[in-house]
Design a protein that fits this description.
Keywords: Hydrolase, Membrane, Protease, Transmembrane, Transmembrane helix. This protein is an alpha+beta fold and about 260 residues long. It folds into two domains: about 5-60; about 70-250, Ribbon (Umud Fragment, subunit A), CATH 2.10.109. Helices cover about 20% and strands about 35% of the residues. The chain has three helices and 16 strands. The strands form four sheets. The chain has a seven-stranded antiparallel sheet with strand order 1-2-16-5-6-14-15. The chain has a four-stranded antiparallel sheet with strand order 9-8-7-13, with no helix packed on it. The protein has a three-stranded antiparallel sheet with strand order 10-11-12, with no helix packed on it. The longest helix has 29 residues, at about 5-30. The two termini are about 35 Å apart.
């Protein structure tokens, strides 16, 4: 049972108790000849229902926190980052069911998106959206091709990782640029063999997602495309980092 389902059940149960008390039990207490105290269960329901409701609305429709558990998005996101995700950027979805009821937008190339892992929807993944419907994607000799054209890669030197990221020290640090001018940093590990893919055409309703740490990421190159129905939101900021202690320099950073 996931946290979202627990939150929905808690909101419904406390809400029903508050409603029944107002419509039935409160009247019976007032009509009783003997003074009756409000039951403890009802007191708790009155106190907790607005809290559960606010958290449910915020988490389901506005923003949701996530923690980065792996290094697949270095250097953009590091192990220990706590991020916030805009839940309505890709449309309003019903909690638990995750069906989109109000389409407000779609992922754009370059977005860092959170989605349910296609091979296990109970697991959340975070990657960068590179291919949108209609795009033709290839990844050859560690160069990403979009619609037949290689994406420019500007060298930034050798990466120097801190804390858990120290294992990536020495990797090639590059800035990759999309055709619309949007850019972001990536890492290339020359000591690892690249995974080549050729001419993947992204169909309607699907997206091609890839990690910024190109040689240490399981993504659309290995397990396939991300369905629109699995999208959860766009990551836009880091609110905290805890990796071998609190890393103050990462608090409040925006996500390219």
């Amino acid at each position: 049972m996931n946290f979202e389902l627990i939150l929905v059940l808690a909101t419904v149960i406390t809400g029903v108790l508050v409603l029944l008390d107002r419509m039935v039990w409160k009247k019976k207490r007032e009509q009783s000849a003997v003074t009756q105290n409000v039951p403890v269960l009802i007191e708790y329901a009155r106190s907790l229902f607005p809290v559960f409701l606010i958290v449910l609305v915020l988490r389901s429709f506005i923003i949701e926190p996530f923690r980065i558990p792996s290094g697949s998005m270095y250097p953009t996101l590091e192990i220990g980052d706590f991020i916030v995700v805009n839940k309505y950027s890709y449309g309003v979805r019903l909690p638990v069911l995750q069906s989109r009821v109000i389409p407000l937008g779609n992922p754009e190339r370059g977005d860092v998106a959170v989605f349910r892992y296609p091979l296990d929807p109970n697991v959340d993944y975070i990657k960068r959206i590179i291919g949108v419907p209609g795009d033709r994607i290839a990844y050859i000799d560690k160069v990403l091709y979009l619609n037949g054209e290689p994406l420019p890669q500007e060298p930034l030197g050798r990466y120097i990782g801190l804390n858990s990221g120290s294992v990536m020290t020495g990797a090639r640090h590059l800035r990759e640029t999309l055709p619309d001018g949007r850019s972001y940093e990536i890492l290339i590990d020359q000591d690892r063999r690249g995974m080549n893919i050729y001419d993947v055409v992204v169909p309607e309703g699907y997206y091609f997602a890839i990690g910024d740490n190109r040689d240490h990421s399981a993504d659309s190159r290995s397990w396939g495309l991300v369905s629109e129905e699995f999208l959860k939101g766009r990551a836009f900021a880091i609110w905290m980092n805890w990796d071998q202690g609190l890393q103050w320099s990462r608090i409040g950073r925006g996500i390219e």
